[in-house]
Amino acid sequence: MKALILVGGYGTRLRPLTLSAPKPLVEFCNKPMLLHQVEALAQVGVKEIVLAVSYRAEQLEKELKAHEKKLGIKITMSHEEEPLGTAGPLALAKGILSADNEPFFVLNSDISCEFPFQEMLDFHKNHGKEGTIVVTKVEEPSKYGVVVYDDTGRIERFVEKPSVFVSNKINAGMYIFSPAILDRIELRPTSIEKEVFPFMANSGQLYAMELSGFWMDVGQPKDFLTGMCMYLTNQKQRSPERLYNGQGVHGNVLVHPSAKIGKNCRIGPNVVIGPDVVVEDGVCIKRSTILRGTTIKSHSWIESSIIGWRCQIGQWISFFFLVPTDPNRSCCLRFIFIVGDAHSNNSINDICLD
To answer: Where is the Mannose-1-phosphate guanyltransferase C-terminal domain (predicted)?
Structure first.
């Protein structure tokens, strides 16, 4: 089996992190976002994964080639000369995806969930049509484009931001297709959601499979942290042995074995600490991710923040809703700088670090 992962975007929603690394390589819960998906695909027998890329392809290829032998898969780069949207990449990789005449997976690169690939495959084979999309439930469907389908899963229509209730299920960014779909797509910038799916639904060729468990698009900072919390809760239920239970820990916390945590710290709830991180004495960290190589000096307070690679955080600093990323600058703030969720983006970085 084969799979195509859409990684061609610039990751602007996750800046400033993506100024240092392509979005698929940003660590989510101590593993590159893309690697969560690659490992899950390998577990269901996928042997070749095509990455639809247009940005920093060399960096992606270098990082992921190391995992090919370990996982027993082949990773192929499909280079876009121009951005091809969400359908054009399928046409560009048509020769690979149709080679064995088997169903293939397609997914967005910035989603976090339990990746029910085996269930998708079984569901798709059972209905025998061209396409299956995974859908997930949302609390406020009026903010989204929703999917309307019957009791068998056959999709009837798509409704954009409905003013009255018609469905509370949205596209979760994971698909499985039969090769016949490739005949519908031209090699040009195309939206699969707007230019392909409606026609498939009208001809009875598109089905929806409901996702059980957590799901989050982690492509922007506030959702990155929400997805992290969901992931840690899932780990507590599924693999509690992976979580850290050292002194001063409260709630779900994931700590890389190479990280060092000082005395009298309060860590958690909902914290991820990456490789080679040093947390000195008396530090409090809540609902945050600390990426590789960062040092947090004593008695600092970090909450609802993403701290980038190799940062130096000084003593007695308080961070709330921040995303510092520059390894060449030390943070020496001596006051609480609070920025709400709505402003948790790259525009705050220079303000906070000057």
So the answer is: 250-317
Which three-class secondary structure state does DSSP give residue 222? helix
Give the distance from CA 139 to its chain's centroid: 20
Q: Describe the crossing of helices 33-43 and 117-127 by its angle, rounded to 10 degrees.
A: 50
CATH superfamily assigned to domain 2-217: Spore Coat Polysaccharide Biosynthesis Protein SpsA; Chain A (3.90.550.10)
Task: Kindly report the pTM of this predicted structure.
Answer: 0.85
CA distance 169 to 138: 6
Q: Could you give the 3-state DSSP secondary structure of residue 157?
A: strand
- The residues carrying an active-site annotation are 161
pLDDT tens figures, 130-189 = 999 999 998 887 777 889 999 999 999 998 877 778 888 999 999 999 999 999 999 999
- Domain covering 221-353: architecture: 3 Solenoid (2.160)
Name the residue among 296, 293, 246 with its Cα closest to residue 27.
293
H-helix or E-strand containing 136?
strand 131-137
